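Recap from last week: sequence in, structure out.
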Amino acid sequence: MKIMVVEDDIGSRNFIVKFLHSKGYEVIEAENGKRALEILDNNKVDIVLMDISMPIMDGLEATKRIRDLGYPVMVIMLTAYKDLDIMRKSALAGADDYITKPIDLSELYARILLAEKYLPFHKFRHSLIVSLFSEKLLSQKTIEELINKNVNLNIEMMKPMNIL
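Predicted structure tokens:
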């Protein structure tokens, strides 16, 4: 299981990373959302622990882009805000879970264990969506080809009648 910790505060990031290492997880670190997206381009990650408030690209924008780009990862938001509006924005951006700071390590571990159980379903759902999208594109292409053939046939049928 590979977990990415996206946190701009180096002390908080080191605290979480050391804890995750002690539990046997492979951990990748990123200091902001932009860097997290760059890492996801080249690494298989299962769970992303995403701080909300960061420079360059915040966690909400990074999570939205993760979902738009179709990365099959679980995203758990980390934030000091205990605000229902931020929770709603996190959910709308595509977050799977939400933990408030200061981080309670036993809560973090429990949430990761729950995410691990849900991960196979999440990855299956992702592959199904990718498959359906590919079939949709293929169907659209086939329909366009048939329309073009129909237009060409209509043109051919009208030529002998000197209508054109």
